Amino acid sequence: MKSNMTKAVFLDRDGTINPDKNYLYRIEDWEFIPGSVEGMKLLFDKDYKLVIVTNQAGIGKGYYRKEDMEKLHNYVISLLKEKNIEIAGIYFCPHDPAENCNCRKPGTAMTEQSIRELNINISESYCVGDKTCDIKMGKDTGCKTILVKTGKGGQDGEYKVEPDFIVEDLLEAAKLIVRGGKK
After folding, report:
1. Which residues contact 28 (CB under 8 A, 6 or more apart)?
2. CB 44 within 8 Å of CB 85
3. I need a labelling partner for 180 at 20 to 30 A (CA). Which of 44, 61, 92, 94 fits?
4. Which CATH superfamily groups domain 8-178?
């Protein structure tokens, strides 16, 4: 009997899809890292659900409102839709790190919620990000992990964790994923 579960790629936002600008929430400040749109298109065309998982401490710190971030995310979704790319979901943690919540990466609450809501087969899924918290979240969730050299490039030193793969950017990560994790 064929499973109706689907494979997914969990994508970090800041530093992976777009340049990491402190507390990005304004549409006019949005830009894509070169190759990130092409990478998402490649994954989407190969039937991977694209799930953005992002820490947004700026909300908890009072720098911007949840509505401001949602406005930006709706804008990004519309830009990607123009390129025939669908985002299955955007999951975010609005908390300040001092709140010690379980949704803030490297916590797995966001990935666990998306697995339930989107019916994801974690054994066929990947997590792509630029920070050690992204890799730790992916490992703790049970998927394969890819560190991109854009953004922090794993140099944040927050967590002692080794990714399954290290690549230049999201496009290279996408090519690796569609090859079945073979370099």
Report:
1. none
2. yes
3. 92
4. HAD superfamily/HAD-like (3.40.50.1000)
Task: Give CA–CA dist 85/115, Å, rounded.
Answer: 20
Secondary structure letter of residue 123 according to DSSP = G
pLDDT tens digit string along 120-152? 999 999 999 999 999 999 999 999 999 999 999
Distances (CA, A) of 24 to 35, 70, 83, 142: 20, 12, 23, 29
Nearest to 118 by CA among 51, 41, 44: 51
Closest Cα partner for 42 from 100, 3, 84, 77? 84
State the DSSP H helix or E strand holding residue 138, giving kind and residue range, or none if neither.
Answer: helix 132-141
Q: With b meaning 16 or more CB within 10 Å and e meaning fewer, what string describes 110-122? A: bbbebbeeeebeb
Strand ranges across the sheet with 144-148: 87-93, 49-55, 8-11, 126-129, 144-148, 165-167
Q: Are 31 and 168 a contacting pair, CB within 8 Å?
A: no
Catalytic positions, please? 12, 14
Instruction: Tell me the pTM.
Output: 0.95
